[in-house]
Automatic annotation (TrEMBL):
Species assigned in the record: Spirosoma flavum
InterPro entries in the record: HTH_MarR-typ (IPR000835), WH-like_DNA-bd_sf (IPR036388), WH_DNA-bd_sf (IPR036390)
SMART domains named in the record: HTH_MARR (SM00347)
PROSITE patterns: HTH_MARR_2
Keywords, ordered alphabetically: DNA-binding, Transcription, Transcription regulation
This protein's name: MarR family winged helix-turn-helix transcriptional regulator
Domain of life assignment: Bacteria
PANTHER family hit by this protein: TRANSCRIPTIONAL REGULATOR, MARR, TRANSCRIPTIONAL REPRESSOR OF EMRAB OPERON
Length: 145
């Protein structure tokens, strides 16, 4: 007996949907004059919600490899949006924070991101969202085993 997922390219559908969202969001950033990529926004968003976390933690939270996170944080630092601070307990380690300029950028960009999320979700219900999360969590868990 054939499993239903054998004939359905659901990974392709997930991937193309993610690319569509990223491209649309990047266009919104460009049109609004934000000097920011979607990947940079993801890091800013995590730093806003979790100030003073390590680059390793950012890598884990965003599922981006360490060199990519380092490169993004370097770019954000050059733009004056983030800063690294050494820890008090270990001078070899540092934590990453948004600067005041970075916090202002977060506040400026968030409405554009929120509008894109609302547009993408359209008229789907809260129950639809719960089902979506359940399904995505299940796929994630199945692949992680």
């Amino acid at each position: 007996m054939t499993h239903p997922s054998d004939t359905r390219a659901y990974f392709f559908k997930i991937d193309t949907t993610i690319k569509k969202i990223r491209n649309a969001l990047q266009k919104q950033f460009t049109d609004a004059g934000f000097d920011l990529t979607v990947d940079q926004w993801v890091i800013i968003d995590h730093l806003y919600r979790n100030p003073g976390i390590s680059q390793n933690t950012i890598s884990e939270m965003t599922t981006k490899d360490a060199p990519t996170v380092t490169r993004i944080i370097d770019l954000l630092s050059q733009k004056g949006l983030t800063e690294r601070r050494m820890t008090d307990t270990d001078r070899r380690k540092f934590l990453v924070y948004l600067t005041k300029v970075g916090e202002a950028k977060y506040s400026e960009v968030l409405p554009v991101v929120s509008a894109m999320r609302r547009k993408g979700w359209g008229d789907l219900s809260d129950d639809d969202y719960q089902q979506f999360v359940r399904i995505m969590d299940s796929i994630y868990s199945n692949i992680s085993e």
